[in-house]
Amino acid sequence: MASDLERERATIQGLRAFTIGEGIVLLVLGILALVFPIIASAWITVVVAIAFLVGGIIGWISNLSRARRLSRLHCFWRLVASTLFVVIGLWIIQQFSTGPLAAGLQVAALAYAVGIVFLVDGIVAMIVALSHTERNGWGWGLANGVVTLILGILILTMQGVMVLQVLGILVGISFLFSGIDLLAFSAAFHRAEDA
Q: The whole model's pTM is what?
């Protein structure tokens, strides 16, 4: 019985140490992204390109392995979509190898895509909130929609160097708050479990 308690205590201490370590890493990455937002934006764009490339390759493998179970038309369009992912991923990576101007255009294109997503998401969130005014908390949904819409408009109206910094700033802020959350709340949660 005592050994079970000791093992559980060791597990909780390990979780606490991991949580604190993760929080510190996220804080450092968040600060670095805010200090060097253009470099962070470029890295984010490369990660998206790699995700497209890997997703497309996995899509090809998945579709070809299930081709006998899918209709020919269904399989064809899924292969087209997977090919598009591979081509776009390779194209973005290739743009980074041709110089800073092409790389900057890729970062700007991704930033504008994020702006469009925020704009649409904000409008949808506002419509959903306004269609549920009889429910408690609908105001938070409306506030979320307004803030997201404003962020989308801000991103889409940015020009020059600012658009190259926006992805790094957004990720930096997200990492910073995630790090603070892990250090303040999660570590305290594990400490309370230990007690």
A: 0.70
